[in-house]
Design a protein that fits this description.
Oligomer: single chain
Number of strands: 9
Radius of gyration: 28 Å
Helix content: 25-40%
Strand content: 25-35%
Structural class: alpha+beta
Largest sheet: 9 strands, antiparallel
Number of helices: 2
Order of helices and strands: EEEEEEEHEEH
């Protein structure tokens, strides 16, 4: 069934072990890379994190969080990956990320070391997004099956009680007939 886990807040540290992570830099408004060093994109099964690396190579500090369910589209344009996600649906914890210019007008733009890397990141995003959609569809199917089960139980209970009432009425009618 559908289970939710708490998304880490902006400013907290996360462990990179076992997660897909890609070194990148933020894109400025002039379509050039910023001098931000140590920025990393972490792609998890249900959200992406933009984080800053720490001295410990397995730890980073979250700068912004974007749930995959809020992503409308993503596109690789050369070394740059653009991700469109409406600001209204980004959790309030990411407001810090928005103020820092990470998310602008509902768009996240990240520069990677090569076109191949940008395409690879997009493929990972697409794969996780498809898995999330499939999981949501299975959850909906499961919910509908449970609704049908409840409906059938109600109908069976209702039809059994109406059958009992009919039998009781028939017995009362027969008893009335015999008394007459």
């Amino acid at each position: 069934g559908a289970q939710t886990t708490r998304v880490p807040d902006v400013g907290t540290d996360i462990d990179l072990r076992g997660r897909k992570s890609f070194p990148c830099s933020l894109q400025n408004s002039h379509k050039r890379r910023r001098a931000d060093k140590g920025i990393i994109l972490v792609v998890d099964p249900s959200e992406i994190f933009i984080a800053r690396c720490k001295k410990d190579v397995n730890r980073c500090t979250i700068l912004a969080v974007v749930p995959l369910s809020t992503i409308i589209a993503s596109a690789a344009a050369g070394e740059i990956l653009h991700v469109v996600c409406p600001m209204a649906e980004v959790p309030t914890a990411t407001a810090t990320g928005a103020e820092d210019g990470i998310l602008k007008d509902g768009r996240l733009s990240l520069c990677f070391s090569s076109v191949t890397m940008s395409i690879s990141v997009k493929e990972h995003l697409d794969k996780y997004y498809a898995a999330l959609e499939n999981r949501a569809a299975m959850d909906i199917d499961e919910l509908l099956d449970k609704c049908l089960e409840v409906r059938n139980k109600i109908l069976n209970t209702s039809s059994q009680s109406s059958s009992r009432r009919r039998i009781v009425r028939e017995e009362e009618t027969w008893a009335d007939f015999q008394q007459a």
